[in-house]
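Question: I have long wanted to understand how a fold can be written as C-alpha cells. Here is the record:
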Amino acid sequence: MNIDISFANYIFLAVATPFALWSAWSDLKYMKIPNILVLLMTGAFVISGAILLPFDVLLWRLLGGFIVLAVGFTLFSFGGIGGGDAKFAAAMALFVDHSHIASFLFELSIFAIIGVVLHKIIGKLGFMNPITDNWESWRIEKTSKVKNFPLGLGMSATLIYYQLSVVGLV
C-alpha cells in the first residue's frame, strides 16, 4: 500500500495527541500513568502503523519501542523514573521516526526542564489551588521530602510538539 507520508503524519498526530493529553492529566492528578493508557496507545499505533507504514518501517518502530522499554525499566529499577514513565516512553517511541531520535531527545530534555520549572512555580504561587489542590503532584510537592515530578507532563508536551512539527504546524 502506498500512502503519502504527510497523510500518515496527520493520522499519527490525531492518534497520539489524546493519549498524550490523558497521560499529562493522569500524571499530574494521580502521579501515575495507567497501564490501560499505554496498552491502548500501543494498540492504536500498531493498527494505524500497519495501515500507514511500510512493513519494514513498522518493524523498526516496534523494535525501537522495545529498546526504549528495556532502557526505561532499567532506569526504573534504579529509581531514575517511574514505571508508568518507562511504559509511556516506549509507547511514545513508536510514533517517532528513527531519523528524528536525536532532535526528539533534545526536545524531551527541554520540555522536561520547562515542566519542572512551571510545576514548581505554579505550586509555590498557588495559581491552581482551587482546582488542583487534591492532585497528587501538588500534594507531594508540598509534603514530601523526596521531590517527585510528573514526568508525563514533559513527555506528553514533547510528543505533541513533535507530531505538530512533523506535519509542519510549528
Residues 5-166 form one domain. The helical segments are 5-30, 35-52, 55-77, 83-93, 101-125, 129-132, 136-143, 151-166.
